[in-house]
Write a structure and sequence with these properties.
This protein is of the alpha+beta class and about 325 residues long. It folds into 3 domains: about 100 residues, Helix Hairpins; about 50 residues, Roll (SH3 type barrels); about 80 residues, Alpha-Beta Plaits. It is built from 9 helices and 8 strands. It has a 5-stranded antiparallel sheet. Strands 6-8-7 form a 3-stranded antiparallel sheet, covered by helices on one side. Helix 1 runs antiparallel to helix 2 and helix 6 packs across helix 7. This is Small-conductance mechanosensitive channel. It is found in: Cell membrane.
């Protein structure tokens, strides 16, 4: 059995490897150098971003992007050294249609990534801000390149894709230092509106956490069915959820106690139920069919049955004898 051909190929492979070995070793050295360069670029970007007072998430994103970019450059240089026939142009041509297919397959991922970068750069909200998006409301935990996570007030985590937050309306509850709260209080129609208004404002001013500038307000907003509604408005700082609930609890308690102590009525809607006891025999007879009301005095209207009987008797009396006997029979 002739092994000469196989031996020649093995020798050729060995010589090719020995010829390529210096390039491999030099490429590995270059790649290690680029790893240190990438780390240095990452540290430099972190210092530059930190000096400009950017958010922690943006600093982390830019440092990672710079590290990955430097590392990719190192990989391209290393492959070019190890394989002299390889060029970046050949890589781009090799991707070709495959790159387009990959782009369509990962369209949503790229969209969320770009939206995440724009959110971190423009900063419509930051970590620890309290936001509301559709039915979700809570505190922002992280802003990543793919999605943003918020912690709801009842202790649940919601992961929202960045593209949703970028193209839709988002309410940032903690965007400003102050926030105005309001609540409608109903007083009786017989009460003095000016007096009730003054009592409400005094009650709000005496509550801890309510700002004096802007000052609290009490405005008449509705003449309702059973009350005159006065809207109490006050400002708090900071505007976080816990502070809002605490301030509202104290304000409403103070307003209720103050109004009650000064004899201001706090009416509530009432309903009156009328029992309808109508039957065919008593329909219209106000002495027996009262519908929840007392019977009237004196003459009352006839019932339907009585009126129908009288009408039938009058019709029979006016008819010829034959028809009257037929109707009676």
């Amino acid at each position: 059995m002739d092994f000469s051909i196989a031996w020649q190929k093995i020798n050729q492979m060995g010589r090719d490897f020995m010829a390529l070995l210096p390039n491999l070793l030099f490429g590995l050295v270059v790649f290690v150098v680029f790893i240190f360069i990438a780390r240095g670029v990452k540290a430099l970007v972190e210092r530059l971003v930190q000096n400009r007072g950017q958010s922690q998430s943006l600093k982390l994103l830019l440092s990672r992007l710079s590290y990955v970019a430097a590392l990719l450059l190192g990989i391209l240089v290393t492959v070019t050294i190890m394989v002299p026939s390889f060029t970046p142009a050949s890589l781009i041509s090799a991707l070709g249609v495959g790159g387009v297919a990959i782009g369509f397959a990962f369209k949503d991922i790229f969209q969320n990534f770009l939206a995440g970068v724009l959110l971190l750069v423009t900063e419509p909200f930051r970590i620890d801000d309290q936001i509301k998006y559709k039915d979700f409301e809570g505190t922002v935990e992280t802003i990543q390149t793919r999605a943003t996570t918020i912690r709801t007030y009842d202790g649940r985590r919601v992961v929202i894709p960045n593209a949703e937050l970028f193209i839709n309306a988002v309410t940032v509850n903690t965007a400003y230092d102050k926030r105005r709260l309001q609540y409608d209080i109903g007083i009786g129609y017989g009460d003095d509106i000016d007096k009730a208004r003054q009592l409400i404002m005094e009650a709000m001013k005496g509550v801890e956490g309510v700002l004096t500038d802007p000052a609290p307000e009490a405005l008449v907003v509705d003449l309702a069915g059973s009350s005159v509604n006065i809207r109490a408005r006050w400002w708090i700082n900071p505007p976080r959820r816990a502070d809002i609930m605490g301030a509202q609890d104290r304000v409403l308690e103070a307003i209720k106690n103050t109004l009650t102590a000064h004899g201001i009525d706090l009416p509530f809607p009432t309903q009156q139920i009328l029992w309808h006891d109508q039957t065919e025999a008593t329909d219209g007879d106000r002495k027996s069919q009262r519908e929840g009301w007392p019977a009237g005095k004196g003459d009352v209207p006839q019932s339907r049955a009585e009126a129908q009987q009288e009408q039938q008797a009058a019709t029979n009396a006016a008819a010829p004898p034959e028809q009257a006997e037929k109707a009676a029979g």
